[in-house]
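Journal club prep — side note

Before the paper discussion, L.F. wants everyone to see what a predicted structure for a comparable chain looks like in token form. Sequence:
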Amino acid sequence: MDRQKVIIKTSIIGIIVNIILVIFKATVGILANSIAITLDAINNLTDALSSIITIIGAKLAGKAPDKNHPYGYGRIEYFSSVIIAAIVLWAGITALQESWPKIFHPDVTSYTTASLVIVAVAVVVKFVLGRYVKGVGENINSQALVASGSDAFFDGILSFSTLVAAIISIFYNISLEGILGVIISFVIIKASIDMLKETIDSMIGSRVDSELSLKIKKSIEEVDGVYGAYDLSLHNYGPEQMQGSVHVEIDDNLTAKEIHTLSREITLKIYQEFSIILTVGVYARNDKFDFIRNDLEEIASKYEEVLQIHGFYVYEDLNLISFDLIVDFDADREKVKKEILDEMKNKHPQFEYIIIDDYDVSD
């Protein structure tokens, strides 16, 4: 089953389960005059609506690339996640408006054994549904499903709190409905803001996941003739469409044909292992001047702010040395560069130096 079908199937299961819970919880909430249970039912209704939006987003995102959108429509999934977050935020604000007055003017609730059993069953169902949906979302890298599953699991905890409040009301005749409603409201609002932030980060372009970055670089460095992989940059055009570029360090005496063969091998290997389309650039390596490289690395090791040096090359005919320097974002980049450059000029004054600023976009 392809990814889109998995998303649709999982979302349909979520819709059916949530609608059933809405019917039972709303009935219990109205009969028992419980604002907390009624709000819980409304929250389940928004969960069902979220699943519908997830299906629509998956359908639209699955459209084939065309002339105007050569990278496809994968990013539409992020817009569906934003809409879901907005719906959840609206539900949280509405719940807060309804719950706040109940703290000062609590309603009299009337729970029955049957109503408590329904709420208890709903708690278990929500836990199971949340774990299932989130697990599927993580397996197929669907941000919308992960958010929906997390929300469902969290709803189970909130429903459990409602059940506890009901039991306290029965045995101690204390109404916690308003207070619990406010707490639920704030939790829903916070969850929606977190969901929105995560989705916007993906849309803007957050840094490459460090674990994925390390795996890709390690895989590239396994190829014969590659001394190191640097400058990995990945661009996300949707959960299933990722492209990027990388520089590899290779011997400077390779022919164009050998470089072509090597870069093709790397591109194919990464696509087969990670489904990522990678463009490969090269850094030439001349072992003859390793002693100068070692001096540079020794100097750079004195600075904690220096994260990496790569792309080192000596142009012997021009008496020129160039290298890329990655300095921590929070450091004084110009100061660090100047001090390293001064030390290198003292050690090897016969050369001119070009230091290329690089940025730590992946670990």
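L.F.'s comment for the group: Residues 38 and 185 are 13 Å apart (CA to CA). Keep this in mind when we get to the figures.
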